[in-house]
Amino acid sequence: MVTSIWTTQQPSIRLQWGTRAFDPAVTISALRETLDVLATCGRPFAGPWKLSDPASRDADASRIDELDDDAVRRVLECGVARNYDGEPFPKDGYGATLVSGLVDGVGVSVGLHVGATVNRYVVNELTATQQAVVPGPTVDLRDSFGRHQVEVLQRLVDIWSPDLAQVTVRDASRSQRRFTTLVGLTNYFRGDHSAFLAALELPAVVHTEVAKGGTWLRVELSDDDLVSTVASIVATADVIEDAGGLPVTP
């Protein structure tokens, strides 16, 4: 089997939001619900997920489904940000990393940074990144992540209430370095930006709507191999950048 471009393009999910206090119970519930949502895409997005503990090498292989909420809370608290002399600095938030089991050389990592309250430049974030970790992976994500990515992002927006949520594609993102607004395959921008977008000559494959407290921008999948879709994403980003960008500051 030829490696699918859905794999080599490393599609990733990114959600960002502004300052928000750390609530362990809310965070753990949202994290567990997030993993359930990702499982919609099947393996490797279905786990099993191992939660890294920065304080204990022995706990690196702990499966989150085998940990109770108190144990997960302790791991999250061990991921507290630290200042220059190594002292905990909770205002910069708490971080955690989860990794899935490999399927045909492809795995997924989930990164979480929550509880940052010090200023608007410290971003709270959830990422889910798919990556081939061995040469020549053969897993094909077209019928799993490719088919479910819109539904997954919609459900994650419900869970985390972000300012920005996207499914990004590697080559499209590389073409947008230093752009004001990064555009992905599926995008959510908090607030109503419909008037701004309606005034632009966006490619015909772009669809926008206002829902869930924000503006959705989707680039239609033109074929299974993503090549034309990547070009459409970049063309959309160029039009938005030429108009001054659509900044969404977490």
Description:
This protein is 28% helix and 25% strand. The chain has seven helices and ten strands. A ten-stranded antiparallel beta sheet has the order 3-2-4-5-6-1-7-8-10-9. β4 (92-100) and β5 (106-116) form a beta hairpin. The protein is globular.
Across the major sheet, the strand order is: 3-2-4-5-6-1-7-8-10-9
Report the mean per-residue pLDDT as an integer: 86
Distance between the ends = 42 Å
Number of helices, where a helix is a run of at least 4 consecutive DSSP H or I residues: 7
Percentage of residues in helical conformation: 25-40%
Largest sheet: 10 strands, antiparallel
Question: β content, as a range?
Answer: 15-25%
Q: In terms of structural class, how would the helical and strand content be classed?
A: alpha+beta
Give the number of DSSP strands.
Answer: 10
- Gyration radius, rounded: 18 Å
Q: Low-confidence parts lasting 5 or more residues at pLDDT below 50? A: none
Would you list the SSEs in sequence order as H and E? HEHEEHEEEHEHEHEEH
Shape: globular
Condensed summary:
Helix content is 28%, strand content 25%. It is an alpha+beta fold and 250 residues long. The model has no long low-confidence stretch (mean pLDDT 86).
Q: What labels would you give this structure?
A:
single chain, 250 residues, alpha+beta, 10-stranded antiparallel beta sheet, 7 helices, globular
Mind sketching the topology for me?
Blueprint: H1 5-8, E1 12-17, H2 24-38, E2 49-51, E3 62-63, H3 69-78, E4 92-100, E5 106-116, E6 124-132, H4 145-160, E7 164-168, H5 170-174, E8 186-190, H6 194-198, E9 206-211, E10 214-219, H7 227-242
Antiparallel strand pairs: 1-6, 1-7, 2-3, 2-4, 4-5, 5-6, 7-8, 8-10, 9-10
Helix pairs in contact: 2-4
